Amino acid sequence: MTSANPRDNLDTDKHKPYPETVIRRGTGMLESGRTWRKDFKGDAREAAHVRLWTTGRVTHPDAPTVANELYIGVLSSGSPAIEMTLSTAGTRIRITAKGSSSLLLHHSHGPGWRIVTGLSTEAGLTTDGRGVWALMEAGR
User: In this predicted structure, what is the pLDDT of residue 28?
Assistant: First the structure.
């Protein structure tokens, strides 16, 4: 854990896979890794903070762009707060944006979705339909 931002660092045990990805997509992140989670206001001005927050935690050059597009997709649903989660395991990075409202098709697969799918290896909706996620590889 880093001491710079202790509030958004979580001590995680990656021996248990993510249920929404392992069963349906076979992308469980079983290696040990790190997870950071932070709530952002549902305001377009927060997108810059999401990009900076992502840049400070993972080194993948496309991660801030993907995090931004996921955040904007959930923001368009009208959610007052958006929970951003970054998880690393081995060479993989999983970015999730989740709000309090169910996402409609144009929120989850709008114009930014092409950017997300172009820069990530996999992407989808969370099982509760209130968020979107993307999986990235370090070599990509």
Answer: 52
CA distances to 2, 18, 67, 81, 138 from 120, rounded to whole Å, are: 26, 18, 11, 24, 10
Reading the block at residue 120, the tokens are: 């990530």
Q: Return the number of other C-beta atoms located less than 10 Å from residue 31's C-beta.
A: 12
Q: Which helix (H) or strand (E) holds 64?
A: helix 63-75
Share of residues in the chain with pLDDT > 70 (%): 76
Distances from the Cα of 17 to the Cα of 88, 137, 140, angstroms: 12, 17, 23
Taking the whole predicted model, whether its pTM rises above 0.85 is answered as no
% residues pLDDT > 90 (the chain): 63
- The residue among 108, 54, 111, 41 whose CA lies nearest residue 86 is 54
